[in-house]
Design a protein that fits this description.
This protein is an alpha/beta fold and about 425 residues long. Helix content is about 45%, strand content about 20%. Strand 9, helix 7 and strand 10 form a beta-alpha-beta unit. It starts with a helix and ends in a 13-residue tail after the last helix. Bound molecules: zinc ion (ZN). The site of zinc ion (ZN) has 8 residues, from loops.
């Protein structure tokens, strides 16, 4: 069987024929020519038009065979289009500007979902740039062809990008059965999130019933303005994280103070005893914690307040959860622990949003958003070459967007 026969079977090109196959030292070159009598198609308007001239032959990289590069060689024609002027013809296997065929781009992008981009470039002996371009192309296609209909629950969050204070804002769909990344944008300002709602459009925004977010003020403002009809749920994870941070501050300050007074061993190795959930403590940590609870320490009072706050999530009725929350805030405000009081004030201020979690019947818990965020962090880490935000954005869409992919007659991998 000839290679031409195989190509015609797996990658038939409408309006073109495979002509000669040449096996050089290090690659397979396949000449492609237009089918006789077929006029070139204008890349501007998609209509056939009279030929203008023919450009020099160009190389398009195709899926390798037995680890041998396969190149389609084709001299593109130009079209004297009555509508667009002189344009380069449209070719179905690529887009004219790229050296990669569509088939190869999809092939590389598929592998780039499983391996790091660097690994893909090494295995298939292409540049990192080519892998990047392939993924970008597939993502562009996916974004253009995806549907944003039927979204009724979204989660908004921020992800730290690299070190320092650079952030990405991410928006997920968190409907049961359809969880995906919808959007990622630079920074975490009000303007950032406004861009998402602009993309979504007024009608689809009006269909949103639940929004899950943290207490970041610009997000709260934008969500209230744009999706005021939705039940806005404050993220449980973020509230607990804030309490943990307050507790950590108290413990660190107290440890310093005790050290000055000559009791430095009391709080030594206590950090995780206070921060971890009790069921996750090691035996040694559990003993240490039991020991610490004997002392009248600020850290201990803070710890007990944090622990008791956890009971909130056991409530079913928003009314009784509200009563509990108010009681907790009162106790926290009397605790004389400044960092805890700060969190308590914030909780009091966002009382309604926190209680919305109960109104939403706990169905949209923050675990969903946290799980997705964790995968974003892995994606960013796995591809340590993503210094540019633009590249990171594409990688994140590729990994989490569940985007539709270009359909090829044959799956090459
Ligand atoms: Zn045209």
């Amino acid at each position: 069987m000839q290679l031409k026969t195989v190509l015609n079977r797996v990658h038939k090109i409408k309006g073109f024929v495979y002509e000669k196959v040449r096996f050089t030292d290090d690659q397979i070159e396949v000449r492609v020519r237009p089918r006789r009598g077929r006029r070139p198609i204008c890349s501007g308007c998609g209509q056939p038009g009279p030929g203008y001239d023919t450009l020099e032959a160009r190389h398009f990289h195709f899926v390798p065979l037995w680890a041998i590069p396969v190149i389609l060689v084709y001299a593109m024609r130009r079209v004297a289009c009555p509508r667009c002027g002189v344009t380069v013809e449209y070719v179905p296997w690529g887009d004219g500007k790229r050296q990669l065929t569509r088939a190869y781009a999809v092939f590389l992008a598929t592998w780039a979902r499983r391996l790091s981009w660097k690994e893909v470039s090494v295995i298939f002996r292409v540049s990192w740039e080519k892998v990047y371009r392939s993924v970008a192309w597939v993502v562009d296609y996916g974004l253009a062809h995806r549907s944003l209909d039927g979204i009724t629950a979204i989660g908004v969050d921020e992800v730290q990008f690299q070190k320092g204070h650079r952030y990405l804002t991410v928006v997920y769909q968190i409907n049961a059965g359809s969880r995906r990344l919808l959007w990622v944008g630079q920074d975490r300002t009000a303007r950032t999130l406004l861009r998402f709602f602009k993309l979504l459009g007024r009608e689809r925004t009006a269909a949103i019933e639940f929004v899950c977010s943290d207490m970041w003020r610009p997000y709260l403002k934008v969500i209230a303005k744009k999706a005021g009809q939705a039940i806005h749920i404050l993220d449980r994870f973020h509230i607990v994280a804030k309490l943990n941070k307050a507790l950590d501050e108290i413990r660190a300050a107290e440890a310093k103070q005790l050290a000055r007074q000559g009791y430095e061993t009391v709080l030594k190795h206590s950090r995780w005893c206070f921060l971890k959930r009790e069921e996750n403590l090691t035996d040694t940590q559990q003993v240490k914690l039991d020991d610490l609870l004997q002392y009248d320490l600020k850290s201990v009072r803070g710890y007990l307040l944090k622990q008791s706050f956890g009971l909130l999530w056991e409530y079913v009725s928003p009314y009784w959860a509200g009563r509990f929350l108010d009681g907790w805030v009162t106790r926290a405000m009397r605790s004389r622990l400044e960092p805890i009081k700060k969190v308590a004030r914030s909780i009091r201020k966002h009382r309604e949003l926190i209680l919305n979690w109960f109104k939403a019947k706990k169905q949209f818990n923050s675990g969903i958003v946290e799980g997705l965020n964790y995968r974003i962090k892995l994606t960013i880490r796995k591809a340590y070459g993503y210094r540019e935000l633009k590249v990171a954005e594409i990688a994140i869409y590729h990994a989490l967007g569940q985007l539709p992919e270009p359909v090829l007659a044959h799956r090459f991998c």
